[in-house]
Design brief:
Length: 195
């Protein structure tokens, strides 16, 4: 489901960017010689923005449902999927089984949080030692990720993960996008190539 959501977002973003470029007169479909759009182009642009808005609302609803489902699954470690375990790609099957067993044996909520924090630190250290990306559950590719080091990507993912609200998360993403645009310009790269 997350793959479908990601693809939908990517498609909506592409349509919105293409429509915006056409509207601004920066690409094909520019319209008349004076840069005006014909009615069909205007309708296409409006439909793309409407679709993107609906997908954003759908995505927010799905994000809340995913959080509720994940919260339930995490409270019952025996039902945890591999992808629900932080750093699962860096663990062997035996380590994932052991993690579920140990997490299930932890009594209080505070002790469970302590155990998970220790596990996260071990996985962060392992990712650093191996020089690989550590993608927390629910996160995907990073805008401009190919312009970043592994350490930068992992640090940014952790910032997003620990954001206190959706607004804070969106602000972090906006700042990040601007940094990546600046980096792409400094390297004389086309920003579309940095997506």
């Amino acid at each position: 489901m997350r793959l479908k959501t990601g693809l939908s977002i990517l498609l909506a973003s592409s349509l919105a960017l293409a429509s915006t470029a056409s509207y601004a007169g920066n690409g094909p479909g520019r319209g008349g010689a004076d840069g005006t759009m014909d009615r069909g182009q205007q309708m296409d642009r409006d439909r793309a923005f409407d679709r993107a808005g609906m997908q954003d609302r759908d995505r927010m609803g799905m994000r809340e449902q995913d959080r509720d489902r994940d919260r339930d699954r995490i409270h019952d470690p025996a039902n945890m999927r591999d992808e629900d375990i932080y750093g699962n790609a860096l663990m062997s099957e035996g380590e994932r089984k052991q993690y579920r067993k140990q997490l299930g044996g932890v009594g209080s909520e505070q002790a469970r949080e302590q155990f998970q924090m220790q596990h996260e630190r071990r996985m962060q250290q392992r990712a650093l030692q191996q020089g690989v990306d550590l993608v927390p559950p629910g996160q995907g590719p990073i805008y401009g990720g190919e312009l970043m080091s592994v350490q930068e990507r992992n640090q940014f993912r952790e910032q997003l993960r620990h954001a206190q609200s959706d607004e804070e998360r969106e602000a972090l993403k906006a700042q990040h996008r601007e940094r990546m645009r600046h980096r792409a310009r400094a390297l004389n790269l086309d920003i579309e190539g940095a997506d």
